[in-house]
Amino acid sequence: MSLSPEKAKNLFDRIHGGYSVSEVRNAGKSWLSRDIICSALGHGSKNVMIVGGFGGKDAFISSFLTDFSHELDDSFSLKGRISDFNISALCSKNRIYIIPMLNPDGIIVNNLGIYPDNPFYGRVMGMMKDSTDFSKWDANIRGVSVYGNFKNDWIKLKLTERSKGIFMTSPCGYYGEYPESELETSSLCSFSRRINPEMVFELRRMENICIIPVGKESLKNKVNAVARIISEYTNIKVLTDDSYVNGSFASWTSEDLDCMSFIIGITDEMTPANCSALKNTILLAMAV
Q1: Cβ contacts of residue 57 below 8 Å, gap of 6+?
Q2: What domains appear along the chain, each with residue ranges and CATH number?
Q3: CB atoms within 10 A of CB 168
Q4: What is d(CA 233, CA 280) in angstroms, rounded to the nearest whole number?
Q5: pLDDT tens readout for residues 2-43
Q6: DSSP calls for 58-76
Q7: Angle between helix 220-234 and 272-287 (nearest 10)
Q8: pLDDT tens for residues 82-137?
Q9: How far is CA 48 from CA 25, 99, 193, in A?
């Protein structure tokens, strides 16, 4: 998905508002002081977090989550359904927090480039070696890939960096000087500690749609069982791949916040069937 200036403005406007009943909250700030927006819906006792837009290439994930948050809002206010799920009933048991775009700076650079008046212009152009092909940009504005900037097994990602010859900030593949070194990740962790979720979904760009259950030893059987139920209902493949789990937000929330966490793999082929399957995956997990 490539955003024109008009499409980017429309996406940001929809992220920031236009809801009937959902509460819009600020979960933190990016390095360029852009708000990291979270919508919250429901009044149940179980807090559920859904987070996307980690990478600069993830505008299509942010768009999907924004559409999903508005669909949830509309269905709740109209007492409607999404597929087989009664949204009012789900919201009576859950409070759903959706952060569509954790890395707004990186997504803007990837889609719209960067201008000389930006305080990070020299740094970004140095990493790009003065190329203007920003389609390869997947990091935040400082050149850190924020999806791997969380502490659990972070050191394994650093070893991967070294094996690829990456030793400093880069358009992709550099995971920071230390865990939570970035405003985006430290803001997300602080926000997560405050709301203390019981269930977390991290949406990531992958080659195939899949679900990766992430659970510490005490939760592993339960998380795996939920993943199997989802797979049977949606035909989405259950995948075990530590290369996605290492240093991830899902791994951190599982270990530090003792919650059930899942990484949902999404491709950029967002067909209606794929979108429906992804929504059903999240809604079913909240329902079981």
Answers
A1: 110, 135, 137, 138, 205
A2: 1-33+47-288 (3.40.630.10)
A3: 9
A4: 8
A5: 788 888 889 999 999 899 999 999 999 999 999 999 999 999
A6: -HHHHHHHHHHHHHHHHHH
A7: 140
A8: 988 999 999 999 999 999 999 999 999 999 999 999 999 999 999 999 999 999 99
A9: 15, 11, 13
- Report yes or no: 226 and 48 within 8 Å, Cβ to Cβ: no
How many angstroms separate the CA atoms of 66 and 72, rounded?
Answer: 10
Sheet with 23-29: strands ordered across: 23-29, 35-41, 94-99, 46-51, 199-205, 260-266, 210-214, 237-238
Q: Which two tokens stand for residue 231?
A: 């797979």
User: Strand runs (DSSP E) across 42-165, as ranges?
Assistant: 46-51, 81-82, 85-86, 94-99
The closest of 258, 247, 242 to 151, measured between CA atoms, is 247
Which pLDDT tens digit goes with each residue over 50-88? 999 999 999 999 999 999 999 999 999 998 999 889 999
CA distance 27 to 224: 29
What local confidence, expressed as pLDDT, does residue 1 receive? 57
Q: In terms of Cα–Cα distance, which of 90, 43, 39 is closest to 68?
A: 39
pLDDT digits (tens, 9 = 90+) for 210-258: 999 997 778 888 999 999 998 998 889 998 877 788 999 999 999 999 9
